[in-house]
Design a protein that fits this description.
Keywords: Membrane, Plasmid, Transmembrane, Transmembrane helix. This protein is mainly α. It has 2 domains: 62 residues, no CATH class; 82 residues, no CATH class. Helices cover 68% and strands 0% of the residues. Helix 1 packs antiparallel against helix 2 and helix 2 packs antiparallel against helix 3. It is extended and about 65 Å long. The N and C termini lie far apart (48 Å).
Length: 146
């Protein structure tokens, strides 16, 4: 008798569960664990949006409500920036050629690598993006700010 659940679905479910456990416990790892099986079994065009959606859900579930309440302004600002970036990215993708998009992506990645060697801080009046917590990260596995 054939099982109603395929091996592929079982493997994906296990990978997502293990990735979610790692993400909630350590703060990273969902995409590292769940990504490769999804890419192989679902293909990149399907796996990437599904992985992003699942990662968002796992992060939202793992966020403590007190954190959301105490940092609501920062979260709202971050979500606004993400939505603006999505709109700008969709517009850019529709207008530019694939070669131009690859060039911009490569430039931004290199800029990101170069800027990791410099200490940068951003000050927004009335909003603290960077805080120092005594004992962190040794005091716990999660960063207390988002």
């Amino acid at each position: 008798m054939e099982s109603p659940v395929s091996f592929d679905l079982t493997l994906l479910t296990i990978a997502v569960a293990l990735g979610a456990i790692l993400q909630v416990g350590v703060g990273i790892g969902f995409s590292i664990v769940a990504g490769p099986p999804m890419m192989v079994l679902l293909g990149t065009p399907v796996a990437v949006p599904v992985l992003l959606l699942l990662n968002t859900i796992v992060s939202a579930v793992a966020t403590e409500w007190q954190t959301v309440q105490s940092h609501f302004r920062l979260i709202a600002l971050s979500i606004s920036g993400c939505l603006a970036g999505i709109a700008l990215g969709a517009l850019t993708y529709a207008i530019l050629s694939e070669a131009a998009i690859l060039g911009i992506t490569a430039t931004l990645l290199l800029l990101g690598v170069v800027t990791t060697f410099f200490h940068l801080s951003v000050k927004i009046p009335g909003l603290s993006l960077f805080r120092v917590y005594p004992g962190w990260p040794r005091s716990g596995l999660r960063h207390p700010v988002l």
